[in-house]
């Protein structure tokens, strides 16, 4: 999972040049911002994804799957019913533990993204180790789904550096961050369907990349309502590979 810093607080670099992704949240449809963070130039240089086209009412659903907590089948059921595409960022543990769900994701038209094999802090491992973390996930997913392509990466815990994004890009990946999120990954601090719904809807903005964790019971229960409310506001859900313009 990605327990990233989604608060408005600025993300300071560690002595090793690593950052923990953070941003200023959208309020009332306003554009979120990373202008106060020290890493905006790094994301731009490596063409990482933070926002889509902020002139269009398009939304991109992304899910982090570090482990299975019993709610991903419900999430997939809702996406299928609502005809909404998504991308699921999976770890090695998830690939080994839940091959049938990974196969279902692909079969139902969703993208499979790379969340690393062992969920390490990639800013403290070597280029070779990063490449190995990514290749093991790609190969493992391909064996399950038959799909050889894997183009998107979400750094574990939202921790990254210029080096991490450079090595990932050299491996053929676009790093994907997010512009809508809330603290949903703590399974011991679930606060109900309405809280999940409110937390997402109040942050919606054109070009939003939405981060959700499938371990959250609240997310599974609120997802259908979130989709319906977003569509009622004129938003369209698109798959990440349909994103044509990046904003920073």
TrEMBL record:
Coiled coil: none annotated. CDD domains: CE4_BsPdaA_like (cd10948). InterPro entries: Glyco_hydro/deAcase_b/a-brl, NODB_dom, Polysacc_deacetylase_ArnD, Spore_PdaA. Transmembrane segments: none annotated. This is Delta-lactam-biosynthetic de-N-acetylase. Residues 57-238 form the NodB homology domain. It comes from Paenibacillus solisilvae.
